Structures are given as C-alpha cells and as structure tokens.
Amino acid sequence: MSAVSVIMPAYNVGPYIGAAIESVLAQTFTDYELIIVDDGSTDDTAAIATRFVEKDSRITLLRQENRGLAAARNTALRHARSELLALLDSDDLWAPEFLAAQIAVLTARPDVDIVTGNAWTLGSHEDGRPARPWPDPRPEPNLTTILGDELSVFIMSVFRRRVYDTIGGFDEMLRTNEDFDFWLRAAIAGFRFARNDQPLGYYRRRDDSLSASQVRMLRGALRVYYKQRPAVLYNADALRLLDDRVQQFEADLIAAEARDALDQQDFTSASRHLAALRERRGGARVGLAGVLARWTPGLLWRAYQMRRRRQAAAHEA
Question: Pick from 192, 184, 187: which is nearest to 221 by CA?
C-alpha cells in the first residue's frame, strides 16, 4: 500500500492535465498512488490521462458521468488506499518537493491532522504572486480562524485518512466553496491544522469577470455558513463570529450583485441592488449611485467605467 493517495478530479482540462500529472511524477517523494477521476469530460482529458496510466502502474484513471468537482473528489477518495490523502486539481502543478515537505510536517507533528500549503499563481492579474501570504503572519487554522477567513486553508493540502473517515467526503450539493465546507467540518470535528506557507506549487487562475466571480464566491460562502450554523450553536464565540461574517457577506453580496449588474449595463437591477445596499450600510455615495442608476444611467456608467480603469491600473502596478 502506498503512503499517499493523490486525489485529482478532472473535467475538460486537456490543455493542462498532462503537466499536472507530470508534476506528480516528478515528486522527490515517490511512494504514492495517483487517482484521476474524469468527470464526464468531452475533450481529450481521458485520452491524455490514459497515456500516463499505460506507462506508470501508480496511476489509476476512473471515469464517471459529469457530477461536479465534489463528486469527482469523492470517487477518488472512495478508491484511495493510503493513510495520507493529498489534493491536486488537474489544472494546477506541484513543485518536486511538495509532497516531501508536507509529509515532513505531518511526521514531525503527529498531533496535526491536516497540513495546508501554498503556491505561486499562474495566470490572471496575480500571475507570479503567492496564492496565500508568504511569509504568512496568520495563526494556524482552527475553527475560529476558518470561520473568520474562508481563505485560511489552501486547496493544496495533505491530510490523514482519519479526517475523511470521520467527516466523510465533500458535499456534492455544493458546486462552489465545497473545500471551505470540508475544512470547516474538519475544524468543527476537532481536527488540528498546520500551515506550510512556502509556495511549493502553481495555482492556476483565470481573469473572469471580477464582479461575477465575487458573486459566485460570496453566494457559495454564505451557503456554507448557513449550512454549518447549527453545528456551532453551542459554541458562543464561534456562533458570534459566524453571524458577523454572514451579515458582512450578505451586504458584500448585494454590492457585488450591483457591480455585476453595472457590468452588464442592467441599470434597473443595479438600482434595486444599490437601494438594498443603502438600507444595509447607508452612505451618501451608495445613495447617489442609486439615484444615477434610476435617472441618469449613462452618467453612472461613465463614472463606473472610470473607476474600473483606475482599479485595473492599480492591479497592474
């Protein structure tokens, strides 16, 4: 039995999956199995993976109808045989030392159940930057820090099988933020986290519409908070923090929906969201934007475009 099972879900990643697999094969720690789950791809993802399977007995390819990222990970987890489980998405990459470094943390600290890593960003306006702070001044993740910071645990994590055996797999009803839900459930169950903040991978990002991606992220995070609230009812500090985050994210979602409506020049929806945001947060600027959206949308559109250009320039600086 291998020491580590590498979990790799894959859906229409033909341009990327070969490099992801090669990054696993290049690991300095070699006692692993790689389980790839093709989640109903319609491109050449499965064909590329098959070529690697034919050359290396450590690689298994499973195929299923498209059921989403969480379901693909769960299929791989059900077939995993190792005591350690490592997550790598099929459009990301590991540096050769990734597995060895994370396993060293788990070996040195037997009380730790999950070690979360870091990576360099590939693509988008953040290309070449660490995906998480480095060095990272944040405390090691626990229930309160995860509730307060949904980015405190990175997807490139390695964890002991007992985590999966206790809390189960990823929630297949969630199509976004399923990893946030998984780490939060692990923290609620009392499992202990450690962080290796050295970037030892490459995390691919794309520049989708900023406002649209914020809407998806906020809606997904809120679903997780709503779902997990009953589990922290008897922890006053955690409950207070969760409720504060919900209040903040609900307002942030309204603001993101307003920006998304403006991006689409849907001024009727923008006016409605801005009015709701003013009820939540107040503010003369929000009130003025709502008035402009209703009565002079062209003027608001020009002002909004100027602001977006300034933001883009700031990102490039």
Answer: 184
- Cα angle 147-246-308, degrees, rounded to a multiple of 5: 100
pLDDT score recorded for residue 209: 45
Contact at 8 Å (CB) between 38 and 62?
yes
196 contacts: CB under 8 Å, gap ≥ 6 = 101, 102, 105, 115, 116, 117, 118
All domains in the chain, ordered by first residue: 4-204 (3.90.550.10), 210-316 (no CATH)
- DSSP class of residue 130 equals B
Instruction: Determine the Cα–Cα distance for residues 171 and 69; give it in Å rounded to an integer.
Output: 10
Q: Of all residues in the chain, what percent carry a pLDDT higher than 70?
A: 89
Three-state secondary-structure class, residue 122? strand
Look at residue 289 and tell me whether its pLDDT is greater than 70: no
In angstroms, the CA 67 to CA 64 distance is 8
Name, in order, each residue with C-beta under 8 angstroms of 88's C-beta and a sequence gap of 6 or more.
6, 7, 8, 20, 23, 24, 94, 156, 201
pLDDT category of residue 26 using cuts at 50, 70 and 90: very high
- Among candidate residues 61, 82, 59, 81, the one with its CA nearest the CA of residue 9: 61
Q: Cβ distance 87 to 4 under 8 Å? A: no
Residue-level pLDDT at 259: 86
Whole-angstrom CA distances from 242 to 11, 79, 171 are 33, 34, 19
pTM attached to this predicted model: 0.91
> CA-based angle 50:177:188, to the nearest 5?
110
Cα–Cα distance, 109 to 92 (Å, whole number): 27
Listed in sequence order, the residues at least 6 apart from 12 whose beta carbon sits closer than 8 Å to its beta carbon are 41, 42, 43, 45
Structure tokens, 309: 């250009």
* DSSP H helices in 11-89: 17-25, 45-53, 69-79
Q: Which of 209, 207, 182, 183 is nearest to 195 (CA)?
A: 183
